[in-house]
Amino acid sequence: MANEYWLTKLLNKALGPALVWIGNAVGLPFAHPEAPIPNYIAYLLLVFSLLIAVSVWLRRHLSVDNPNGFQHAVELLAIGVRGLIDSVIGPQGRQYLPFHLSLGLFIFCCNIIGMVPGFDSPTSNINVTAGCAIVVFLHYNIMGIRTHGFLRYLKHFLGPVIFIAPLMLIVEILSHLARPFSLSVRLFANIFGEHMILAVFTALLPFILPMPILMLSIFTSLVQAFVFVILSIVYTSGAVEHEEPHGHEPVPAH
Fold this sequence. Notes:
Blueprint: H1 6-25, H2 39-60, H3 69-88, H4 97-112, H5 126-148, H6 150-155, H7 165-204, H8 210-240
Helix pairs in contact: 2-4, 4-8, 5-7, 5-8, 7-8
């Protein structure tokens, strides 16, 4: 069992006995009954709670006439994600803005919270990144089925030539199953390695290198969140795009 952070100890002390009792009652005992809540779950709950609290506060303080600086920052972020969606999917993809914006904020907050002493980054655990990747996988497939219907969406997996459809089906299924794997491993490896490097340099040179390394870590955390979001937008675009009609040449603009 890994060393418990302060928040994990607090939650295990408050909720641990009840969770262990429930687990035993349903036949799913915990591997570590003395600490049923791991670090990544504790700080995942913290990030969720903070984001919900900030969202509620922002909603209550929204103003058209006199917006505050935080509202401006959130609006700029939303405009940036909306611009990505417009460039990849088109204006009709703006309906997916809440999902992709929420996903990006959640991943970024999970990335950087571990830079605070006494805190842990949930995304440095493969279970969290795999969960995010599975959510993206389910989202774009559900959106594709909702847009085209199940049978028409399935035709995307068969390719344009009917006699190689069985082969294309296998290739497309393997390709789609590889997406959550690559998303989860990429994010986990980068955040885990980033925090290991930060911990090593902080231990070796605590008064010289931590600040530059910390700034670099914040930048890479932002980049990783951006990559995750842009890939999720690309996957959604591929699932909901409409086939262009054949046999019609585009009319050049004058």
